[in-house]
Design a protein that fits this description.
The chain is of the alpha+beta class. The protein is built from six helices and 19 strands. A hairpin with a 5-residue loop joins β1 and β2. α1 crosses α6 and α2 crosses α6.
C-alpha cells in the first residue's frame, strides 16, 4: 500500500513481507490500519515489523480536471430520493437529528493502469490524504479524504467536524443556508459531547470554509487533552467512529438505521485508515471518504450526504452527483 499526507509531496510505501492477513482491535502496534464502517466487522492492518517501508518524493504535475457526465437511471435517483424522504420522516419524529445516507455507483473501465491511477490521485488532490490499499480480503481501494478522524501526539489530540457541501464557483464566496449551518452545528455538538468521556480539555475553533477538490465544506477544528487512563487508541476511536459527519446523531440510532435501510454494504467506505505509531504514542487517522473500490474492469464509487429535518431530496441527490466527480477525475483516462 502507499499513502501521502495532506499538503505533502512525499509518499510512503509499505510492502508486507508475507501473505498473512493481520487484523487488529486494539490499534496498539506500529502499523497502517484499514477499518470498516461497521465496527463489528474486521479492521485489517499492515504491521510495520512485518513489512518493508520506503519513503520517496513524487514528481509534481498539474493535471487538468474535466467535467465528466455519468448517466444515472431514473430509478436510481428515485430510490435514493425515497430513502431521503424516509430519513426526513424519522428525523421529524425526533428519533434522530441527522442521518447520513449513501449510495454506490459502479463504473465500467475500458482499461486499468495502476501507474496512471497513482499519478492522478497524488497530483489532483494535494490537500487531501491520498492512499492506495490492497489486501486479498478487502480488494483494491483508493481515495483522497478531506476529513481527519483523529490525530494524537502524546496526550494531545485533534479532530474536526466537516459538513455542508457546495461546488466551488470561481470568484464567489460560498453562501451557506440554514440547513447547512444547522447540520454543521449538529456535528460539532455531537463530537464535543462524545469526547467528554475521554478528554479533560476540549477547544472548538470558529467554523470556516474548507476546499476539498472541486467542493467546499464547512469545517470546525476540535482540539484538546486526553484524560489520564483514556489515551488508549481503541477507546478514543470507539467514541468518535462513526462520526456524525458520516453516520448521524444519535450515533447508535443513526448507525442502526443506516444498516437497516441502505440497500448495500458500505464495507470500508466511511471507515477509517492511517498510520499508527507504537504504543499509541501518535496516530494520524482519516475518515475513508471520496474513495472507490476497483475490481477487475470496474470501479465502485461511494458517495453520501447528511440528512436533516431541512433536507430536500433533490438537493441531496445533486450533492452526491457532485461528490462523484472526485474519484471520476482519477479514473478519467480509463473510462
Amino acid at each position: 500500500m502507499l499513502y501521502s499526507l495532506p499538503n505533502s509531496t512525499g509518499v510512503t510505501v509499505i510492502l508486507q513481507n508475507n501473505d498473512v492477513l493481520y487484523d487488529t482491535a486494539c490499534y496498539a502496534e506500529a502499523c497502517f490500519v484499514f477499518a470498516p464502517f461497521d465496527s463489528h466487522e474486521k479492521a485489517f492492518c499492515i504491521p510495520l515489523d512485518k513489512s518493508k517501508l520506503f519513503e520517496t518524493e513524487f514528481p509534481w504535475n498539474i493535471i487538468d480536471e474535466n467535467e465528466i457526465i455519468i448517466n444515472e437511471h431514473l430509478q436510481t435517483k428515485e430510490r435514493y430520493c425515497e430513502q431521503v424522504k424516509g430519513a426526513i420522516s424519522v428525523i421529524k419524529s425526533r428519533n434522530a437529528s441527522k442521518i447520513v445516507l449513501s449510495r454506490k455507483k459502479e463504473i465500467d473501465l475500458k482499461q486499468f493502469d495502476i501507474s496512471i491511477l497513482i499519478k492522478r490521485l497524488l497530483n489532483l488532490y494535494p490537500t487531501a490524504f491520498r492512499y492506495v490499499w490492497y489486501q486479498p480480503e478487502t480488494g483494491l481501494w483508493c481515495g483522497a479524504s478531506p476529513e481527519v478522524l483523529l490525530q494524537t501526539e502524546g496526550v494531545s489530540f485533534t479532530t474536526m467536524a466537516l459538513a455542508g457541501t457546495q461546488r466551488i464557483k470561481k470568484d464567489t464566496v460560498p453562501h451557506w443556508n440554514f440547513k447547512e449551518l444547522n447540520e454543521q452545528k449538529i456535528v460539532v455538538d455531537a463530537i464535543a459531547t462524545s469526547l467528554e468521556k475521554v478528554t479533560s480539555v476540549v477547544r472548538i475553533s470558529k467554523t470556516y470554509n474548507y476546499q476539498a477538490a472541486s467542493l467546499v465544506h464547512l469545517r470546525t477544528d476540535i482540539t484538546g487533552i486526553l484524560k489520564k487512563g483514556k489515551r488508549n487508541l481503541s477507546m478514543i476511536t470507539s467514541v468518535l467512529h462513526p462520526t456524525p459527519a458520516v453516520c448521524g446523531t444519535p450515533q447508535n440510532y443513526a448507525k442502526s438505521y443506516i444498516l437497516g435501510n441502505e440497500d448495500y454494504n458500505r464495507e470500508y467506505y466511511t471507515g477509517f485508515l492511517g498510520p499508527i505509531c507504537e504504543k499509541d504514542s501518535c496516530s494520524t487517522l482519516f475518515v475513508n471518504l471520496r474513495c472507490m473500490k476497483i475490481d477487475a474492469n470496474s470501479a465502485t464509487l461511494f458517495v453520501g450526504g447528511g440528512i436533516t429535518i431541512d433536507s430536500e431530496p433533490e438537493s441531496e441527490w445533486e450533492e452526491t452527483q457532485h461528490k462523484l466527480q472526485t474519484m471520476l477525475q482519477v479514473i478519467y483516462p480509463m473510462l
